[in-house]
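FORM 12-B: Structure-to-Sequence Request
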C-alpha cells in the first residue's frame, strides 16, 4: 500500500505548485458543490417525472371517459338507425323498390337524422348499404371511397358479433374522419344480416373540440391510435391522421404504458425522448396517448443546473484567484531562485539570490547563497590547481624524450654512418632528430598548425626509416586544413604505434596513409597502416596503455591522446581504433571545426 502512495506522491510532484494549489482549491470547493447540486437535481427530476407520469395518466383517463361519452352518442345514433323499422323494411325489400319508393325511403331516413341536428355538425356523412353493396341512403355531405366501407364490413363480418367498429377514413375532399360502422341485422331474425350503417365523424370533432385545450406541456403530442398502430386523430403535424406508428417503435411503449400505469415509460422519437402516457378504451379498441418531451419535463431542472453552473463559475473564479495569490507568494521567490540558478548554470558564478522572508523559501535562498559562495571558493581553487596541472603536464610532455629512444636513434645513425659511403642518410637523420627535439622541447606552444604537426611526423618517420628499414608514408591533406590548429604532439603517438606494433612485425614493405579532411562539420584525421594488425585482446590492451617501451619517442600512449582531446573539446570528440589481425589498423581522430564548439581551434590562414 505504501508503494502505491509513494507512486502517487511522485506523480503529484511532477505537477507544478501553482497547478497543485489550483486543483486542490477546485476539488475542495467545486466537488462538494457539484455533487450536492446534481444529487438534488436528480432527486427533483425523479419527483417531477413521477408526478407528471401520475397526473398525465389521470388526465388521459379523464379524456378517455370524455371521448367515450361523445362516442356513445354516435353509437346510439347508429343503433337507432339499425333498429329503425323504416330502414329494416327498406333493406329487406330494397331490390323490389322502384325509384320513387327509393326516394321516399331516403326522405324518411333524412327526416330521422334531421332530429339529430346537434350531432350533424360533426358528421361528414351517413351511409346505409345492403350486404350486396347497394346504397340505401347517403347523407351526401361528403363522399368517401367505397374501399374504406368494404374494409369496415370485412372487420365486422370477421368479428362475428353485432357490435360496432371504429376506423380511419378519408373523404374525397381530403377531410380525415373516424368511420363508425356497425351491421344491420333483422329484428325478426337476428342471424340474418341485412346490411351496414356507416357514420363518418369529422376528426376535427376530437382534436379541435374534445382535447383541443388539453395542455400536456410545450412540444407534447396528443393523439388517438387504434390497436394496429394507425393514427385516428392527432393534434401534431409530426403524427398525421392515417399515419402508422408501428415502424417508429411507438406502439409497444404505448401498450405497456396503458397496462402498467405505476411505471414510467419512454420512447425515442424524432431525435427526442418522450414520456409516454396512454389510456386504453376497450369499447372503441383504441388508445388515447400523450407524448411529453423530456426537454419540457427537464426545463425546471435545466434552470436549477444553470443556477448551479453560475455558482460553480463564481466559486471557480474565487478559487483561481485565491490559488493564484497564494501560489504567487511561493512561486515568485522560487522563480527568482531558479533564475539565479540558471545564471550560475550559464557561467555567472557571482550571483546572489535576494529574499528576506522568514519562511521555508527564504531559508532556501540563504542556503543557496551560502552554497554559491562555497562553489566560488572551490572553483577558484580548482581553476588554480588545474592551471598548474596543465602547465606541468605540457612541460612534462615537452621534456619527455625517452633516453632509450635517443640512445637507439644515435646508435642507428652510427651504424648507418659506418655502412654509408656518402653519409647522406646520417645527415638527414641528424637533421630530422634536431628539428624534432627543437619542436618538442624548445617550443612551448600548446597548439600548432596541422602543417607543423605533419612536419614533426615527417621528421620522426625519417628517423624510424633508419631504424626499421624502408616503408612508405602517403599524405592526403585537404588544403583548407593546412593552417587548422591542433594540439601539439597529437598525431606522433598514433604514427609511432603503427610503426612499432604494425610495420615492424609485418613481412615485406609496409605502408602508412595519413588522411586529413572535413566531414560533417568536424575535422577528421585518419591514420591507416597495412601492418600486422591486432586481435580484440591486443586492441583492448592498447586502448588502456599509458606508457610505452624504450622504442618510443616519449612516454605518451593512445589513452593520453584521447584524454587530451576530450579535455579540450568535449566528450563528443576523441579517437576511434579499428583493427584486424593480419589486415592492419585504422585510427580516426575527430576534432571540432566550429570555433564555438569546445575550445577555439582555428585562427586564420597564416
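FORM 12-B RESPONSE
SEQUENCE OUT:
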Amino acid at each position: 500500500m505504501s508503494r502505491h502512495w509513494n507512486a502517487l506522491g511522485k506523480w503529484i510532484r511532477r505537477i507544478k505548485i501553482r497547478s497543485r494549489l489550483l486543483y486542490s482549491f477546485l476539488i475542495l470547493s467545486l466537488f462538494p458543490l457539484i455533487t450536492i447540486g446534481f444529487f438534488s437535481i436528480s432527486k427533483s427530476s425523479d419527483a417531477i417525472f413521477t408526478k407528471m407520469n401520475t397526473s398525465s395518466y389521470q388526465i388521459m383517463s379523464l379524456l378517455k371517459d370524455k371521448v367515450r361519452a361523445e362516442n356513445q352518442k354516435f353509437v346510439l345514433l347508429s343503433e337507432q338507425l339499425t333498429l329503425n323499422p323504416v330502414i329494416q323494411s327498406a333493406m329487406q325489400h330494397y331490390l323490389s323498390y322502384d325509384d320513387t319508393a327509393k326516394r321516399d325511403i331516403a326522405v324518411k331516413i333524412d327526416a330521422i337524422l334531421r332530429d339529430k341536428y346537434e350531432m350533424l355538425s360533426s358528421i361528414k356523412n351517413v351511409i346505409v348499404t345492403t350486404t350486396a353493396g347497394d346504397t340505401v341512403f347517403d347523407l351526401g355531405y361528403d363522399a368517401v371511397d367505397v374501399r374504406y366501407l368494404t374494409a369496415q364490413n370485412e372487420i365486422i363480418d370477421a368479428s362475428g358479433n353485432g357490435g360496432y367498429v371504429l376506423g380511419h377514413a378519408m373523404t374525397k375532399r381530403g377531410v380525415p374522419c373516424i368511420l363508425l360502422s356497425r351491421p344491420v341485422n333483422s329484428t325478426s331474425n337476428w342471424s340474418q344480416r341485412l346490411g351496414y350503417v356507416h357514420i363518418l365523424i369529422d376528426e376535427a370533432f376530437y382534436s379541435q373540440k374534445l382535447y383541443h385545450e388539453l395542455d400536456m406541456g410545450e412540444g407534447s403530442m396528443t393523439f388517438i391510435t387504434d390497436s394496429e398502430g394507425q393514427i385516428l386523430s392527432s393534434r401534431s403535424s409530426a403524427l398525421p391522421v392515417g399515419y402508422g406508428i408501428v415502424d417508429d417503435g411507438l406502439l409497444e411503449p404505448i401498450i405497456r404504458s396503458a397496462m402498467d400505469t405505476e411505471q414510467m415509460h419512454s420512447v425515442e422519437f424524432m431525435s427526442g425522448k418522450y414520456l409516454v402516457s396512454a389510456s386504453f378504451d376497450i369499447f372503441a379498441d383504441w388508445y388515447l396517448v400523450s407524448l411529453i418531451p423530456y426537454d419540457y419535463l427537464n426545463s425546471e431542472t435545466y434552470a436549477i443546473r444553470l443556477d448551479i453552473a453560475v455558482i460553480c463559475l463564481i466559486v471557480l473564479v474565487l478559487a483561481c484567484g485565491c490559488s493564484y495569490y497564494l501560489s504567487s507568494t511561493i512561486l515568485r521567490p522560487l522563480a527568482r531562485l531558479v533564475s539565479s540558478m540558471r545564471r550560475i548554470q550559464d557561467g555567472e558564478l557571482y550571483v546572489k539570490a535576494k529574499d528576506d522572508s522568514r519562511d521555508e523559501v527564504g531559508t532556501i535562498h540563504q542556503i543557496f547563497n551560502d552554497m554559491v559562495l562555497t562553489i566560488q571558493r572551490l572553483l577558484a581553487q580548482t581553476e588554480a590547481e588545474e592551471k598548474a596541472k596543465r602547465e606541468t603536464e605540457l612541460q612534462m610532455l615537452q621534456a619527455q624524450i625517452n633516453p632509450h629512444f635517443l640512445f637507439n636513434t644515435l646508435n642507428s645513425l652510427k651504424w648507418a654512418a659506418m655502412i654509408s659511403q656518402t653519409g647522406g642518410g646520417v645527415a638527414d637523420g641528424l637533421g630530422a632528430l634536431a628539428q624534432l627535439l627543437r619542436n618538442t622541447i624548445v617550443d612551448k606552444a600548446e597548439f600548432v598548425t596541422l602543417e607543423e604537426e605533419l612536419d614533426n611526423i615527417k621528421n620522426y618517420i625519417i628517423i624510424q626509416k633508419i631504424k626499421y628499414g624502408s616503408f612508405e608514408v602517403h599524405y592526403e591533406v585537404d588544403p583548407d586544413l593546412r593552417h587548422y590548429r591542433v594540439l601539439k604532439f597529437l598525431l606522433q603517438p598514433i604514427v609511432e604505434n603503427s610503426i612499432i606494433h604494425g610495420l615492424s612485425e609485418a613481412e615485406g614493405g609496409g605502408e602508412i596513409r595519413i588522411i586529413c579532411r572535413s566531414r560533417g562539420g568536424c575535422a577528421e584525421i585518419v591514420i591507416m597502416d597495412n601492418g600486422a594488425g591486432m586481435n580484440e585482446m591486443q586492441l583492448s590492451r592498447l586502448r588502456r596503455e599509458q606508457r610505452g617501451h624504450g622504442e618510443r619517442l616519449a612516454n605518451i600512449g593512445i589513452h593520453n591522446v584521447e584524454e587530451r582531446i576530450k579535455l579540450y573539446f568535449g566528450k563528443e570528440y576523441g579517437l576511434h581504433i579499428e583493427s584486424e589481425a593480419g589486415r592492419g589498423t585504422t585510427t580516426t581522430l575527430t576534432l571540432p571545426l566550429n570555433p564555438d564548439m569546445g575550445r577555439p581551434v582555428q585562427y586564420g590562414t597564416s
